[in-house]
Amino acid sequence: MGITDTVSRAAIGRSSGVGAVAVAALVALSAAALSAGLWKVTAISWVAFAAMAGAIPLGVRAAGSVDARRLVWGYGLASGAMVASAAAFLLPQAIGLDPKIGGFGVAAGLLVGFASHTLGHRISHLDLPFDATAAQLAAHALSAGLIIGLVYGAMPELGLLLGLAIVSHKGPAGYAAARRLADGGRSPLVLLVPAAGVGLTAIPAASVGLPSAPATNAAVFGFAAGIFLHVAMDFLPRCEVGSEVTEVAQISADDHRLLDRLRTHAVASTSLGAVVVFLAWVVLR
User: Could you report the per-residue pLDDT of 31-76, keeping only the tens digit for each?
Assistant: First the structure.
């Protein structure tokens, strides 16, 4: 099924225009970032873009049906990698700089992540002139990019592994969102905006940097750890009736055997995602 079979040409045109502006802005920022030597943040930004943008046609082709096991593995690998990365690369930095402030930063990140997710869900129930799904994803991408930029700006020696693991969820998120938009007769090309969103804020944030005060950096690293742990836990592929996996895959409460199999895949995928990050760290350290 092609995009033009699912959504109107007018919707595609509007979405293409907005997406093109976001991509053009990312290209311009990337050129400036590379000239300033910010290649790590630039690379992370484009990996995030490629992951979400590349998932758009896959999600469109899956409109009307979806492979539940593939969805579980996508979410599981990403969430496992994010849990391991936040716990190994951000938490030690926050606590090492200032245990109390770092701990409060983690708490703030978890609570702000929960609040933004919960309140952001209300957008989907409002009659808005723009697409609520894309707006929620764009807000998430912009805030995540801001945090990534601040973290790498404060500690440029951080490796690429942290950032790449953090943005790994962009692929499955883009897939699920594109499928949902196509099913609703809306253009998934609007997802180019959240796809570029990480870079749109990460690059400027890394360019500005933060004062090299231990307390400030402890708060930033702690807040980042809390935010990304919340996102990772939110992406855990819960295979219960009413969860996103069962809703997207249209699985009923009567499919007990399928749900049990998916739970096994959920445990395997999240574990593998964390193990991959650990093995990568062992090899690259």
Answer: 999 998 999 999 999 999 999 999 889 888 877 666 778 888 888 8
Written as one string, the DSSP assignment of 103-131 is: HHHHHHHHHHHHHHHHHHGGGGGS--SS-
Whole-number Cα distances in Å, 93 to 1, 133, 154, 214, 276: 47, 34, 11, 10, 21
Q: How many C-beta atoms lie closer than 10 Å to residue 259's C-beta?
A: 19
| The pTM of the whole model exceeds 0.90 | no
Q: What is the DSSP string of 167-198?
A: GGGHHHHHHHHHHHHHHTT--GGGGHHHHHHH
String of DSSP letters for the chain = --HHHHS-HHHHHHHHHHHHHHHHHHHHHHHHHHHTT-HHHHHHHHHHHHHHHHHHHHHHHTTT---HHHHHHHHHHHHHHHHHHIIIIIHHHHHHH-HHHHHHHHHHHHHHHHHHHHHHGGGGGS--SS-HHHHHHHHHHHHHHHHHHHHHHH-TT--HHHHHHHGGGHHHHHHHHHHHHHHTT--GGGGHHHHHHHHHHHHHHHHH-----HHHHHHHHHHHHHHHHHHHHHTS---STTSHHHHHTT--TT-HHHHHHHHHHHHHHHHHHHHHHHHHHHHH-
Contact 85, 277 (CB under 8 A): yes
User: 71-119 pLDDT, tens per residue?
Assistant: 888 888 888 999 999 999 899 999 999 999 999 999 999 998 888 877 7
